[in-house]
C-alpha cells in the first residue's frame, strides 16, 4: 500500500492576501464616502476614487465589476453602520433623552452623508426594486424603537400605538429625504431648528412622552 507523506498546507500566504484584499475593499469604501461629502456620485470617476484611496484602477475592478456594484457596496456599508448605531443607542440612551438624541443622530448622519443619500434617492426613482431593502431597513429601525418602548413600559403596544410610532418615523425620514432632494424650506437641514422641530414632531405624532409616563405610572402602581 502506497504511503502518502504529510504535506503541510500553505495557508499563511492566502490569509495575508485575503486580509490585504479586505483592507483594499474597506479603504475604497471609506474613500468613496469621504469623496461623497464634497462631490456628487456621478462626478466621481473610478480613476479619481482609486487615486485618492492610493490604489490602481485594476485594484478597483478586481473587487467591483462596475460603479453601480461599488455603489451597492456603499449602501451595504451604510445599512451595517446604521444598524450597529441604532442597536447601541437603544441599548444605552436614557428614556428622557431617547427621542432627542435619536433624532439628533439621524439628522446629523444624513446631513453629513447628504450627497451619498441623494444618490440613493435618485436611483430609487428609476429602480423601484432597489428601494425595497432600504425600506425594510427603515421598518427594522421602527421595530427596534417599538421594542425599546415595550421594554420601558412593561407591556405590548396597541395597534394604534404602534401605528403612531411608525408614522412618526415615516414623517421624520420622509422629511429628511425631501429636504436632501430639494431643500424646500422654510427650515433647512443644516439648521439647529430643523432638528428641534423634528424632535417636537416625532414626540407629538408618536405620543412618546404620554406613552412612557402612563406606562411608568402603571408599573409603579
Summed up:
With 221 residues, this protein is mostly helical. It has ten helices and no strands.
Description of the molecule:
- Helix content is 77%, strand content 0%.
- It is mostly helical and 221 residues long.
- The chain folds into 2 domains: 11-64, Arc Repressor Mutant, subunit A (Orthogonal Bundle); 67-220, Orthogonal Bundle (Tetracycline Repressor, domain 2).
- The longest helix has 26 residues, at 67-92.
- The relative contact order is 0.09.
- Determine and state the CATH class of the largest domain: Mainly Alpha
Question: What's the helix count?
Answer: 10
Question: What is the distance, rounded to the nearest whole angstrom, between the alpha carbons of the first and last residues?
Answer: 82 Å
Written as H for each helix and E for each strand, in order along the chain, the element string is: HHHHHHHHHH
Strand content: under 5%
Q: How many domains?
A: 2
Instruction: Let me know the number of strands.
Output: 0
Overall pLDDT: 89
Provide key terms for this protein.
221 residues, Tetracycline Repressor, domain 2, 2 domains, 0% strand, disordered N terminus
Amino acid at each position: 500500500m502506497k504511503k502518502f507523506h504529510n504535506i503541510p498546507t500553505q495557508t499563511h500566504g492566502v490569509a495575508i492576501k485575503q486580509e490585504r484584499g479586505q483592507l483594499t475593499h474597506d479603504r475604497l469604501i471609506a474613500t468613496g464616502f469621504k469623496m461623497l461629502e464634497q462631490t456628487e456620485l456621478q462626478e466621481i470617476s473610478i480613476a479619481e476614487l482609486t487615486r485618492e484611496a492610493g490604489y490602481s484602477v485594476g485594484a478597483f475592478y478586481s473587487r467591483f465589476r462596475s460603479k453601480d456594484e461599488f455603489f451597492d457596496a456603499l449602501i451595504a456599508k451604510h445599512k451595517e453602520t446604521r444598524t450597529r448605531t441604532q442597536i447601541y443607542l437603544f441599548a444605552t440612551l436614557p428614556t428622557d433623552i431617547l427621542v432627542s438624541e435619536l433624532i439628533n443622530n439621524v439628522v446629523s448622519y444624513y446631513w453629513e452623508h447628504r450627497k451619498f443619500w441623494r444618490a440613493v434617492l435618485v436611483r430609487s426613482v428609476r429602480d423601484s426594486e432597489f428601494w425595497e431593502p432600504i425600506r425594510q431597513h427603515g421598518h427594522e429601525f421602527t421595530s427596534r424603537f417599538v421594542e425599546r418602548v415595550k421594554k420601558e413600559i412593561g407591556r405590548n403596544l396597541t395597534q394604534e400605538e404602534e401605528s403612531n410610532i411608525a408614522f412618526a418615523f415615516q414623517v421624520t425620514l420622509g422629511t429628511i429625504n425631501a429636504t436632501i432632494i430639494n431643500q424646500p424650506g422654510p427650515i433647512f437641514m443644516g439648521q439647529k431648528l430643523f432638528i428641534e422641530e423634528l424632535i417636537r414632531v416625532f414626540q407629538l405624532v408618536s405620543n412618546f412622552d404620554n406613552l412612557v409616563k402612563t406606562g411608568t405610572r402603571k408599573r409603579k402602581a
